[in-house]
């Protein structure tokens, strides 16, 4: 979700494009003088000279098929391009009065590059297209001299830290003029370095800055770089003059990667999922080219960043062939893989997949439900499982799988009436274990659990229904582990299962014609939780489990003899190392916490294994395609950050971008559970096990092997320690001013704010702890903040929060006005099950826990057309909506929705007295938004040094006029607050009083 600032306009000195003050983070600063032009001035305003990079494609001929903006396309295959210089061809196009063109490239014989189906949008002047990246420069421009001559400067720039795929040099010789923004393109020199040689004329040096062509700059923190004649290197803002050629020790990379192996294609309707093993290369593979043949569209070539490619929208009943090539950074292309084929089926009659809402996730308070425990819309899919009687659920007529998507769709208006506009639901994939209602025991990651769906209420129906109401769906996803029965389609273990007099009740007779789906009852056993496919008396072919079927010294609680290989275990040899880790965790803050099993019901994937990565990426692509708005990532801390940053997070971004575009990808919200249950900034001093660590990209290159890289990163970051981790000012105001945040080092994963969660026994503690950690997150304004959840209450309490209604109101007032995204666990709005044990597994009835069924409180009808306002309600749900905390959260949502500073603003406590008092501001030039608010929760506050003007309180409507930069507010009382909004007029006028006074906001 990288947010690239808009291109600056007007006049530019390079020093004006300032980098942020934090180490290693690159971005333009707001309010700087603007450049003269955002693109180079073309020789003619109505022409574009298009340069296309040939080394990667290596076609025998190149054609440009284009359409001027508002005009018609050329006749296929388009106009022939001519040789320009080494590795480049070009064509100058007359655009007439158009200001740009849409373009694709092909070899004249059916091979195309159409930007993965989106076409290229090009402007005027000199435009380059290289490996999918568009930039503005003439790659064949004469530098005027060779390196080493008296009036040339050869500049090497290190890209290892910035991670740019395109680098431009913007410069001016001493006494001369600046190049046109963004400058001239730099060429790859060797791994991690780009180079440009500049003719200085009579000058002995030049001023310089570097950028990625898309608005992100490195200009030496606003001072620009001074580069003398000769050879100079610039690395991490360190300038070395008279430097040796950093690439001299390296020979040119002419070795192509190995061909990808084990290419496999499988069809599902009119979609095909293609997977393969990673290729190897002496300097690293950068991408893959997938070539598809078959169908009426001919040959199509697509660039892919991962080892999974999901091909959708194909023709029905058609055979397609696929080959894969690997490409390295030097543009060397491997031989083609062996071909894989797949034949599509019928086009599904289901409605087309949804589309994510694609708005800033900070606008949307989150309501978290355990789907199976929220509301029962269809009793026919209720299932109790093998533990129904033992748990005590049968006595309460309360099957573990009770709530469903139909029940959730029926009560979306209840959630909307609370004012919540995002719903976080527990995992939807088909589960398999004795007690799997919560969804964290995934068995078939490619199928939705049938116990959640109904006719007319599929998962797609839920997504579409929520979107129709302006509400988002965040899907809980698990990458770390499967169920103890493995993952269907990847590996499912066989266990020993003698059906003797003692065990026949547990080991079901095999039924080859039956396939487990969690819902359907198998006729021989009479069970929906049938397990006959999992057990075998005969040793399976290829068995690796030690001492198959031999009796042990142990017995079950009933006194029955237990046999070897009867129960899944990581140390028995039952699970192959190619897919699963083979150890138990011994140290929760050690490396083994990322590479061993948590529990015997949570079989730990080897996430550094390519087949596992392919399986999971392909599975979650399916749900992205359905239009979900984000992923909540379970057990994120138990997977190395390198694997997230290399594989899973880029795959998510690539898929959302491919399906829905860059804006949707920017706002596709990924937030991870990094469980750190200690009251300090860094989890027992271990950076690798701290929540904020996962919000950052890697800052060092590691082995190409993911397993080795994980260990190298772990050791490196542990040695660096807590004092050498990156910091950020993205959550903080600069005085009273909002500044454009720098997300250039953002990993793509936001996190749950575990430190605030741990301290919500008292709101002041949560607030103080949150502030203390905020400089170590990439951007704490995206932190997900909750008091309790399906796992824990504050301070790792095993009970649902029971601090009292006043304290709950105070916690809510803080969460809804402080930075971060407020999140409410289902029922907390009525203190549901307060003080009850959150989870006891099947050892006690669910009705006595924090995971009790909520539907009884929702019985009746409810309608809500606006967030935070109920149009009508009858029955029990009307009584629920009358509760004081419900009224409190409704009004908090109304206020937050009306004040942008409370949603997306940065904050500061500078010049403020008060226990929970802060100022927040959000400014967006594109929309003309400027929102500034002064907030105090429970206690009084005095604000000094704030802008003069008229302030209106959103709670009481009180108006205060500030003339000397100081505003004082009396204590409103526990759980109450004041939100004084600066009236800036027009669209930024202060709203005044919002909503109706209640028990707390008054």
TrEMBL record:
Its cofactor is Ca(2+). Residues 1-18 form the signal peptide. SUPFAM superfamilies: (Trans)glycosidases, Fibronectin type III. Residues 248-261 have a biased composition (Low complexity). Pfam families: Alpha-amylase, CBM_25, fn3. Residues 377-394 have a biased composition (Polar residues). Keywords: Carbohydrate metabolism, Glycosidase, Hydrolase, Metal-binding, Polysaccharide degradation, Signal. PROSITE patterns: FN3. GO terms for biological process: polysaccharide catabolic process. Residues 244-263, 377-397 are annotated as: Disordered. One of its GO terms (molecular function) is starch binding. Residues 256-347 form the Fibronectin type-III domain. The keyword Protein transport does not apply. InterPro entries: CBM25, FN3_dom, FN3_sf, GH, GH13_cat_dom, Ig-like_fold. This is Alpha amylase catalytic region.
């Amino acid at each position: 979700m990288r947010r690239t600032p808009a291109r600056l306009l007007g006049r530019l000195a390079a020093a004006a494009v300032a980098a942020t003050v934090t180490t290693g983070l690159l971005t333009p600063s707001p309010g700087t003088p603007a450049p003269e032009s955002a693109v180079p001035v073309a020789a003619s305003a109505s022409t574009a000279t298009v340069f296309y990079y040939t080394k990667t494609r290596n076609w025998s001929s190149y054609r440009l098929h284009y359409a001027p903006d508002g005009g018609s396309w050329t006749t296929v295959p388009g106009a022939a391009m001519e040789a320009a210089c080494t590795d480049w061809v070009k064509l100058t196009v007359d655009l007439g009065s158009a200001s740009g063109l849409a373009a694709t490239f092909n070899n004249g014989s059916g091979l195309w590059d159409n930007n993965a189906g989106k076409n290229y949008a090009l402007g005027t002047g000199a435009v380059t297209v290289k490996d999918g990246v568009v930039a503005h420069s003439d790659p064949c421009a004469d530098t005027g001299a060779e390196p080493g001559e008296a009036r040339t400067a050869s500049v090497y720039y290190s890209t290892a830290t910035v991670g740019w795929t395109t680098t431009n040099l913007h410069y001016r010789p001493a006494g001369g003029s600046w190049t046109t923004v963004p400058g001239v393109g730099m060429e790859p020199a060797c791994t991690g370095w780009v180079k440009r040689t500049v003719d200085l004329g009579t000058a002995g040096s030049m001023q310089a800055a570097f950028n990625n062509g898309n608005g992100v700059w490195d200009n030496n923190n606003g001072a620009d770089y001074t580069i003398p004649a000769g050879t100079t290197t610039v690395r991490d803002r360190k300038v070395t003059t008279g430097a040796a050629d950093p690439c001299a020790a390296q020979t040119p990379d002419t070795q192509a990667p190995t061909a990808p192996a084990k290419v496999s294609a499988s069809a599902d309707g009119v979609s095909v999922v293609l997977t393969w093993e990673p290729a190897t290369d002496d300097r690293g593979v950068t991408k893959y080219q997938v070539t598809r043949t078959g169908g009426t569209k001919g040959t199509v070539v697509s660039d892919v960043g991962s080892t999974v490619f999901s091909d959708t929208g194909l023709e029905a009943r058609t055979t397609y062939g696929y080959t894969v090539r690997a490409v390295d950074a030097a543009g060397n292309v491997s031989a083609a893989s062996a071909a894989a084929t797949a034949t599509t089926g019928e086009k599904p009659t289901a409605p087309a997949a949804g589309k994510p809402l694609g708005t800033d996730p900070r606008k949307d308070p989150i309501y978290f439900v355990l789907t199976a425990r929220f509301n029962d819309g269809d009793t026919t899919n209720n299932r109790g499982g093998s533990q129904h009687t033992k748990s005590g659920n049968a006595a309460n007529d309360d099957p573990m799988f009770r709530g469903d998507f139909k029940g959730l769709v029926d009560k979306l208006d209840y959630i909307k009436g609370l004012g919540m506009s995002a719903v976080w639901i527990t995992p939807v994939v088909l589960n398999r274990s004795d007690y799997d209602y919560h969804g964290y025991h995934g068995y078939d990651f490619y199928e939705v659990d049938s116990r959640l769906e109904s006719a007319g209420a599929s998962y797609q129906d839920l997504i579409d229904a929520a979107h129709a109401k302006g509400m988002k769906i965040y899907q809980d996803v698990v990458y770390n582990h499967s169920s103890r029965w493995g993952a269907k389609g990847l590996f499912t273990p066989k266990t020993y299962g003698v059906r003797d007099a003692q065990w026949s009740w547990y080991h079901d007779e095999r039924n080859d014609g039956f396939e487990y789906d969690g819902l359907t009852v198998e006729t021989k056993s009479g069970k929906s939780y049938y397990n006959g496919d999992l057990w075998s008396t005969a040793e399976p072919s290829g068995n690796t489990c030690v001492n198959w079927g031999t009796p042990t010294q142990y017995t079950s609680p009933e006194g029955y003899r237990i046999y070897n290989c009867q129960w899944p275990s990581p140390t028995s040899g039952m699970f192959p190392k190619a897919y699963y880790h083979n150890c138990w965790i011994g140290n929760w803050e050690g490396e083994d916490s990322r590479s061993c099993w948590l529990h015997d019901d949570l079989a730990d994937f080897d996430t550094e294994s390519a087949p596992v990565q392919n399986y999971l990426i392909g599975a979650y692509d399916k749900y992205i395609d359905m239009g979900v708005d984000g992923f909540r990532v379970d057990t994120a801390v138990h997977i190395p950050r390198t694997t997230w940053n290399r594989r899973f997070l880029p795959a998510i971004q690539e898929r959302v971008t491919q399906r829905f575009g860059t804006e949707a990808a920017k706002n596709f919200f990924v937030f991870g559970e990094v469980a750190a249950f200690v009251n300090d900034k860094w989890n027992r001093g271990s950076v690798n096990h701290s929540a904020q660590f996962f919000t950052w990209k890697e800052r060092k290159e590691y082995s190409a092997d993911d397993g080795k890289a994980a260990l190298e990163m772990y050791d490196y970051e542990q040695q660096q320690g807590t004092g050498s981790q990156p910091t950020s000012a993205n959550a903080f105001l600069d005085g009273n001013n909002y500044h454009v945040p720098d997300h250039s080092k953002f990993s793509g994963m936001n996190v749950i704010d575990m430190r605030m969660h741990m301290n919500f026994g008292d709101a002041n503690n949560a607030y103080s702890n949150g502030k203390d950690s905020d400089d170590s997150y990439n951007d704490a304004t995206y932190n997900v903040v909750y008091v309790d959840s399906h796992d824990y209450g504050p301070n790792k309490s095993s009970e649902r929060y029971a601090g009292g209604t006043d304290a709950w109101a105070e916690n809510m007032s803080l969460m809804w006005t402080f930075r971060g995204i407020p999140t409410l666990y289902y029922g907390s709005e009525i203190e549901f099950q307060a003080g009850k044990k959150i989870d006891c597994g099947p050892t006690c009835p669910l009705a006595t826990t924090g995971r009790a069924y909520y539907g009884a409180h929702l019985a009746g009808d409810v309608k809500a057309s606006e967030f935070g306002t109920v149009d009508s309600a009858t029955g029990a749900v009307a009584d629920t909506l009358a509760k004081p905390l419900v009224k409190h959260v409704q009004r908090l949502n109304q206020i937050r929705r009306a004040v942008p500073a409370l949603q997306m603003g940065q904050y500061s406590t500078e010049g403020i007295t008060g226990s929970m008092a802060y100022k927040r501001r959000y400014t967006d030039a594109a929309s003309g938004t400027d929102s500034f608010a002064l907030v105090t929760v429970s206690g009084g506050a005095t604000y000094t040094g704030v802008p003069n003007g008229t302030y209106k309180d959103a709670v009481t409507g009180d108006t205060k006029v500030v003339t000397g930069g100081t505003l004082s507010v009396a204590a409103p009382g526990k759980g109450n607050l004041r939100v004084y909004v600066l009236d800036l007029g027009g669209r930024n006028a202060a709203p005044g009083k919002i909503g109706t006074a209640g028990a707390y906001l008054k």
